[in-house]
Amino acid sequence: MNAQPPIRFIDLARQYEQLKPEVDAAIHRVLDHGQYIMGPEIAQLETRLADYVGVEHCIGVASGTEALLIALMALDIGPGDEVITTPFTFIATAEVIALLGATPVLVDIDASCNVDPALIEAAITDRTRAIMPVALYGQCADMAAINEIAARHGNIPVIEDAAQSFGATFSGDKSCGVSTIGCTSFFPSKPLGCYGDGGAIFTRDAKLATAMREIRVHGQERRYYHTRIGVGGRLDTIQAAILLAKMDTFEEEVRARVAIGDKYRARLRDIPGIDLPLLRQGDDCVWAQLTILTDERDALAKHLNEAGVPTAIHYPVPLHHQPAYRDLCRLPAPVPHAESAARRVLSLPMHPYLSDAEIDHIVETVERFQKA
């Protein structure tokens, strides 16, 4: 009897098997024309991504982190400024704020594990220059409420950190197109991933788009003429070509992610001791991570790993407890929900090629632990 192949947390190899001819051909087109930096695939990808999101402008950049940094730079955010965000996210969210000398202002999360809009208003001061909600696990934050608060306080720019949510929707609109600026990541494990680092910025604002295009190429208005401070933030042509190949099946993969997320949650929600992040009705989550909450996280993770089920923790340490950031952040109020989530979250395998048999094994393994 043949052994079953191991379950992978994110199965990029299985995806490549499905897309191999298209991906290989796309890479070889770049190798043939040799324009490895800012080749024609960059503009082709930007047009396609902008059309997908439903905005006028897309700027391909070197990573999701670079996308956030360039967005903040385009808004002239720097020392003395404050940016409101969540303490429960990957470090890049606060990292880019701190790199510019601004202060991350951390507001607690709600039951969705995203920033709680009801707490944002009390954190706004005359130094607030932007609000940066994170679309954690593939679900947008409550962007309508956040945008309304921003508008009421002098049209504060809202930057969606959509590193995990490309392809998701909020009230029928695509993530990355629901705020002043949307930033996403094409890190290989993301819903739309390349084979290295990559990212993109989206906006409807032509002036911001121009600024961000210049910033990504060292602040150049034209070759060797620098009108602003910039960075080396270009997306590689080969990565753009890979993303173009993957775009052909991306909507199919999004539908698969939604269906797999629904299967998981339908099975998990009735297991005693397992909680799930709140999922808003009517919005699509693309499940960059399929995450549960449990008071016995470490023991459950050990049990799952011993049964051949890989796990991960997104994220074990809130931003204000990170050694480098303890003295850099401002907390207007305690953040008990973020601190609780950091102790309880556990991510299970999730990708669009996960089989029903694999889902069954994963959920049954969780059930056995909870019943023991």
Strand content: 5-15%
Number of strands: 13
The total count of helices amounts to 10
* CATH architecture annotation name of the largest domain: 3-Layer(aba) Sandwich
The CATH class of the largest domain turns out to be Alpha Beta
- Structural domain tally: 2
Mass-distribution shape: globular
Strand order of the largest sheet: 1-9-8-5
Helix and strand string, N-terminal first?
A: HHEHEHEEHEEEEEHEEHEHHEH
Radius of gyration: 21 Å
N-to-C terminal Cα separation, in Å? 29 Å
Low-confidence stretches are none
Could you describe the 3D structure shown?
With 372 residues, the chain is of the alpha/beta class. The protein has two domains: 12-108 and 115-243, Type I PLP-dependent aspartate aminotransferase-like (Major domain) (Aspartate Aminotransferase, domain 2, 3-Layer(aba) Sandwich); 249-371, Aspartate Aminotransferase, domain 1 (Alpha-Beta Complex), CATH 3.90.1150.10. The chain is 38% helix and 13% strand. The strands form five sheets. Strands 1-9-8-5 form a four-stranded mixed β-sheet, sandwiched between helices. A three-stranded parallel β-sheet has the order 3-2-4, with helices on one face. β6 and β7 form a beta hairpin. α1 packs antiparallel against α7 (237-268), α3 runs parallel beside α4 and α3 (64-74) packs across α6 (206-216). The two termini are 29 Å apart.
Features:
single chain; 372 residues; alpha/beta; Aspartate Aminotransferase, domain 2; Aspartate Aminotransferase, domain 1; 2 domains; 4-stranded mixed β-sheet; 3-stranded parallel β-sheet; 38% helix; globular
